[in-house]
């Protein structure tokens, strides 16, 4: 069976869901050691470069203080680099409110968190749209964390 893996983190997470052993991912022709033996996963160069692309984008934007225009540009950048899906990009670009000012800066992380909490309070957290909002929050938090560690 062949599997396309975009980065080391994905390889580790996928393998951990199937096995309880420890996981080590080191290079593009990766040996993953577990209690059951050794499996091989080949990770593309794009996968190895994904982490540096995430960091580059995080260095350019502050998701806690950005305009809608900046958010759209960031989302397009993430999509064009293959880091998020088009559906995730659309979820990120959901307008913050009716009649918003596209150049006014706001905290996209706080707004995304509020949307997820609202879904949970209404009991719709398992719906497809709600799951996309969770993923959008995860993306924004990841960028925030990467920016804070730089």
From TrEMBL:
Can you name this protein?
A: Uncharacterized protein
Q: Which domain of life is it from?
A: Bacteria
Source organism: Idiomarina rhizosphaerae
């Amino acid at each position: 069976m062949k599997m396309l893996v975009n980065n080391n983190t994905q390889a580790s997470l996928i393998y951990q869901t199937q096995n309880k052993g420890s996981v080590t991912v080191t290079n593009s022709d990766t040996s993953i050691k577990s209690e059951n033996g050794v499996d091989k996963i080949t990770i593309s160069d794009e996968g190895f470069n994904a982490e540096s692309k995430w960091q580059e984008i995080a260095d350019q934007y502050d998701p806690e203080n950005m305009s809608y225009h900046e958010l759209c540009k960031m989302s397009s950048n993430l999509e064009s680099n293959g880091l998020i899906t088009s559906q995730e990009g659309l979820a990120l670009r959901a307008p913050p409110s009716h009649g918003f000012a596209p150049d006014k800066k706001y905290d996209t992380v706080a707004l995304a968190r509020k949307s997820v909490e609202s879904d949970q309070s209404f009991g719709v957290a398992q719906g497809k749209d709600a799951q996309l909002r969770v993923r959008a929050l995860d993306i924004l938090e990841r960028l925030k964390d990467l920016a804070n560690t730089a």
